[in-house]
Amino acid sequence: MLYFIQQDAVTQAAQDAAEVSEEKTLSIFDLLLSGGIAGQIIIFVLFVLLFAAVYIYFERLFAIKSASQVDKNFMHQIKDSVLNGNIESAKIRCAQSDNPVARLTEKGISRIGSPLEDINTAIENAGRLEVYKLEKNVSILATIAGAAPMIGFLGTVIGMVIAFHELATSSGQAQMGLLAEGIYTAMTTTVAGLIVGIIAYIGYNHLVVKTDKVVHQMEATAVDFLDLLNEPA
């Protein structure tokens, strides 16, 4: 008889543990929405920042990829046209290529006949404008990378303040389970902020690398064009 009672107690304890485990299971979506009004506002702001970061990343990535596509024979064709004195043909060839390299070359061709220093200055000014176009909105991505974790920390601090306020107003009688739940709910904003910040940071650095490659391509083309003008007639 005692054996069966012990077995029933063990079974009941196992069932209670399973119920507690099931009660503690919480989906990420429910966890994000269980942080109160302040936590939900922070999470919404972070989702908006995440959407903006992803949109800017892919928009700039496609733009930079398009800018980096230059025909390998482009400079050879420009060189042949310039050496043969067919300046209009060189301008038409540049106009047919919608990329920064072609626009820089066209700017240099339009200054042929001017002093070499003036041509170099015109190309540099056009190059700065092209770099500005390539880096459009990339600074926003860097701002999101820095601001998102801080916004997440702000949500956590607000949640912690609310949790300890509940503890203080209950004269120390608040259940530890409720206090712990409030704390880990508040911590979700930090997790969300770090995730958004990491995504934006990686995207920003990837775009910087891609942009640098296009800039180096532009510099190499400018050097080739100036060398072409320095060649003896």
The count of DSSP E runs of length 2 or more, i.e. the number of strands, is 0
Rounded average pLDDT: 77
Largest sheet, in brief, is: none
Q: What's the gyration radius in Å?
A: 31 Å
Strand content: under 5%
Structural class of the helix and strand makeup? mainly alpha
Shape: rod-shaped
Work out the count of structural domains.
2
Low-pLDDT stretches: 2-7, 17-24
Task: Give the termini separation.
Answer: 114 Å
Helix content: over 70%
Individual helix count:
9
**Helix/strand order, N-terminal first:** HHHHHHHHH
Family: Belongs to the exbB/tolQ family.
Organism: Zunongwangia profunda
Protein name: MotA/TolQ/ExbB proton channel family protein
GO biological process, one term: protein import
